[in-house]
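Hi W., the coenzyme A complex you wanted:
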Amino acid sequence: MGPFETQRLYLRRFRLTDLDDIYTQVYADPEVYRMYCGETLSRAQVHQRLLHRAYQSGYAEFGYLAIVLKKTSRVIGQINLTPFVNSYYRLPGEPTTPTNALEVEMGFAIGKAYWGQGLAFETCQAMIRYAFQDLKLPRLLSGIIATNTRSINLHKRLGYRIERNLLQDDICGLVAVLENPLIRNS
Ligand SMILES: CC(C)(COP(=O)(O)OP(=O)(O)OC[C@H]1O[C@@H](n2cnc3c(N)ncnc32)[C@H](O)[C@@H]1OP(=O)(O)O)[C@@H](O)C(=O)NCCC(=O)NCCS
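Structure:
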């Protein structure tokens, strides 16, 4: 997966030397990590994750990429594309079956200093292009905490529709859904 380049950003595989940046921007700031993954991680735990992410195969279809601001060459956040067995979200109008569907989620977090500039939007557009044009995924599905207004707005700007999660025991009260417009259902 990747690397990708946008007007202001590089999306590339993590390096172990990104530890300080990603720890500071995402995992040390409650305003960022609470809405993203719920709880903080220690520097040692982030280092453990970086070991996996830094050695992620270039051929892997899914995984994590560092979001790098071209102007400063610093890591300002991360984005991931991750398949998951969907036992978390149920959408209105979709039948309940005895099996769980395999879905793909695009997750992301950006340091607060970089909010409000359209950088998350630019990042997500590149990843959606890859997910839909290259991987030909039928759709992307994300859970969102209902008070995460910035994320809801971003998902809407990206073209997602926002649904209520009918499984009320999940922390994510909302589910964002983006269908692949390149795939026509006959
Ligand atoms: C969710 C998150 C990535 C959104 O970041 P963001 O900066 O608000 O999102 P965008 O990149 O779409 O930027 C939109 C803002 O940039 C402004 N903007 C400036 N230039 C822009 C451009 N060229 N294109 C689009 N928007 C632009 C928009 O007007 C908007 O401003 P506003 O925030 O004052 O309304 C960020 O809040 C975050 O990391 N939160 C914590 C983690 C998280 O919640 N992850 C998602 C879990 S579901």
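The beta strands are 4-5, 9-12, 63-69, 74-85, 102-110, 139-144, 161-164, 174-179.

W.
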